[in-house]
Amino acid sequence: MASKIKEFYKQNKKSTFVVYVILRILVIVCMVAEILRQDWNNVFFCVLTLVLLTIPYFIDRKLKITLPNTLEIIILLFIFSAEILGEIQNFYGIFSQWDTMLHTINGFLCAAIGFSLIDILNRDEKVHFKLSPKFVALVAFCFSMTVGILWEFFEFSAYQFLKTDMQKDRIVQSISTVELNPEGKNVPVVINDIDYTIIYSYDKEANIMKETVIDGGYLDIGLLDTMKDLSVNFAGAIIFSIFGLVYIKNRDEHAFAKRFIPVVRKDE
Length: 268
Fold this sequence. Notes:
mainly alpha, two-stranded antiparallel ribbon, two-stranded antiparallel sheet
């Protein structure tokens, strides 16, 4: 399989092949290091990344859809950035805007994929409907937002059932909630300038009450991260939808959007 992928890239996409090889080598080096540390969770992420890096190849060979070089390189870098740099190297924790950047790119890429799917159907002679350029752009935007929402569902489910923190909790200094209204009314109580929070929890095994102090404020459990992710996904989807709308109206061969729009390949 590896030889087939190598031969395919060498024949069709030399620039993409260079990126693919470099990323694959880096993932393998990282996996060897994690095996030596016996961190099997990170080893799984490395194996998953190696599998995900082959997705563009299978899209081209099995679905006969050609991905532009620019789009394919961004997809490969996105996978590496999310799994290896983000999860294993903790770039999500080191760089505060790392997650924001990836979600923005995800919104852009998903809009491109949604746009191309509708555009391919729109231009297919076997399909008996034709959508206006504005509607195609709208569908691309909705497709991107749907993918973004489904991903947030996944992050929340992982938190609920696996006790992960994919949503990345944050420290906040103010809250507004009706839960603390002393009269039980639907009027929010606003608490500002929170300096620290104390959490008391009962340890059944040790039969003691534990005290956890959160310095700097109150702990928000994922709400701000979720809304931020959807907001930047929205921005990325809007940006590409505009590019796509301009492209589909003019069909300019040199349009910026063309670099991100897959096309169906008609093999001889």
